[in-house]
Specification:
alpha+beta, Immunoglobulin-like, five-stranded antiparallel β-sheet, four-stranded antiparallel β-sheet, elongated
Length: about 150
């Protein structure tokens, strides 16, 4: 009886430790377009926090049809004179359901969008509704491979 109680207590404490560790990870939801649609030219993305702790968005942008990631912050560093980006909200997501929206006009249509917080190593991906399922799977594999080996 004592052995059973000790095993159950150890399993419960292990589960509790795992749950607390899982709760501290950054969780975001990324989607295409604006949360509240407005008439604005270009392609938009929005990021919503799913955590209770503050976090910062490190990188965000578009998933292009060839499998490359078009980083908006990197584009702004390389082209500082272009004033083509619209943004709503802050990249510092302070609480649950805090949001950040941004967009810009592009020549080529993106297949989807991505975002990554400062503590995440892989970006969170979301695809446009008109991107075929086979292409979504192919893009996920290509992006994961590029991140793993570059």
């Amino acid at each position: 009886m004592t052995l059973t109680a000790a095993v159950l207590a150890a399993a419960g404490s292990g589960f509790n430790l795992w749950w607390k560790f899982r709760d501290k990870k950054d969780k975001i939801r990324v989607a295409c377009d604006l949360i509240y649609p407005q008439i604005s030219p270009g392609y938009f993305l929005h990021v919503i926090s799913l955590c209770d702790h503050p976090m910062r968005i490190a990188d965000f942008g578009y998933v292009m049809l060839n499998g490359s990631l078009f980083s908006i912050p990197q584009f702004e560093v390389n082209e500082p004179d272009d004033e083509v980006r619209l943004a709503y909200g802050s990249i510092d997501l302070e609480s649950r359901n805090a949001s950040f929206e941004t967009g810009m006009s592009l020549r080529d249509r993106p297949a989807g969008v991505y975002a990554r917080t400062t503590s995440q190593s892989r970006p969170c991906l979301a695809f446009r509704y008109d991107t075929p399922k086979w292409q979504r799977l192919w893009l996920r594999v290509v992006i994961r491979w590029k991140i793993a080996y570059y």
